[in-house]
Hints:
This protein has about 400 residues and is of the alpha+beta class. The chain has two domains: about 15-145, Alpha-Beta Complex (Adenine-n6-DNA-methyltransferase TaqI, Chain A, domain 2); about 195-350, Adenine-n6-DNA-methyltransferase TaqI, Chain A, domain 2 (Alpha-Beta Complex), CATH 3.90.220. The chain has helices spanning about 5-10, 110-115, 135, 145-190, 200-205, 230-235, 310-315, 320-325, 340, 350-395; strands at about 15-20, 25, 40-50, 50-55, 60-70, 85-95, 95-100, 140-145, 200, 205-210, 225-230, 240, 245, 265, 270, 280, 290, 295-300, 330, 335, 345. A six-stranded mixed beta sheet has the order 2-7-5-6-3-4, with helices on one face. Strand 3 (about 40-50) and strand 4 (about 50-55) form a beta hairpin. Helix 1 (about 5-10) runs antiparallel to helix 4 (about 145-190) and helix 4 packs antiparallel against helix 10 (about 350-395). The radius of gyration is 29 Å and the shape is elongated. The model has no long low-confidence stretch (mean pLDDT about 90).
Amino acid sequence: MSYLQKLLDKYCPDGYEWVKLEDAVEIFDNKRIPIAQNKRIKGKFPYYGANGIQDYVNDFIFDGEYILIGEDGSVIDGLNHPILNYATGKFWVNNHSHVIKAKEEFLNRFIYHFLSILDISDIVRGTPPKMTKGNLLTILIPKIPLKIQEKIVEILERFRILEAELKAELKAELEVRGKQFDFWINKLLNFTNFDKNNSKELQSIGCFISGLRSKNKDSFVNGNQRYVSYLDVFNNKEINYLPNNFVKIFDDENQNDLNYGDVIFCGSSENFDETGYASVYTIKNDEKVYLNSFSFIFRFKDNNLFLPKFSKYFFNCKDFRDLLLKCINGVTRFNLSKEKMSKIKIPIPPIETQNKIVSILDKLSEYSQEINSGLPAEIELRSKQFKYYRDQLLDFK
């Protein structure tokens, strides 16, 4: 016998009835007010849309605990469940989310959890999908004693809180490990650690090479050659995989392809601090791979001067970034000047030193990654447990 059935036998021996949602909740759609993005005044109060918080504004129209249900656009997930948000405190809601609150004989949290497992595909209509107020209120919900609702909510909330705590722990641990890694990378790669007499300007040890030239949007339809995208560079300190982006390259084109050990820089960005992010190409293969037009290559004249594994740390360390940021021009869009950058003077550590630093930082990186496999697996397990018990506790026939 399931736990739910035991609760029903104890607190509801004569059975229960099903009622329409309109008999279980109050609906507050008439209080919703949309605000165009350019009319919103920034503030501390959440501004909700169909799929959650869209912004923060300086005023509120609701104060309390409410259930928000997507009305149009983002209204249904991949399992045909409704898009729900449980909003508490002071907040604002636009006209893309229904706003409901439980009546006396129901608990808000019980209704929220019950709705979260429903298949609503038969009451969502149109393109884009829409769930009208009329269809929403026809949903049937079991009318059971508050005592049973409380027991169900208590168990589900315990799982929800545990999952939230694990996620917070993961975030905090990742931040700590990230700071530890940044500390050591900047300490080990502090320019004062190296011989000043063995420093050289970038222009004397390498050259700058452009990415793709003379390409338009049609060039990226049915492409025949791989290329490294801007996001590949921005999101990775090392390109150690064949990118799954393709561009059309003709045989008579003179385009520059990437070589093992090339250092790639994001040459342009809308954000000053994001300009000049570096990534190192560490693939050895015969297939030609090209580079997006918003990035450029720094290629060493002597391939033995810098280890590629060392470059991925060096060209992202604080001392180098501080010099690089002085080479950026622009007001609304920022560009990295290759001319200014060519005059940056950097230390050239011996290969033995480079290997030692790489060994230390690789170990620290592995240590940082451990948390990415440990806690997420625990969170996934807790999430599966929550869904299992939720489905069991809400399995009304």
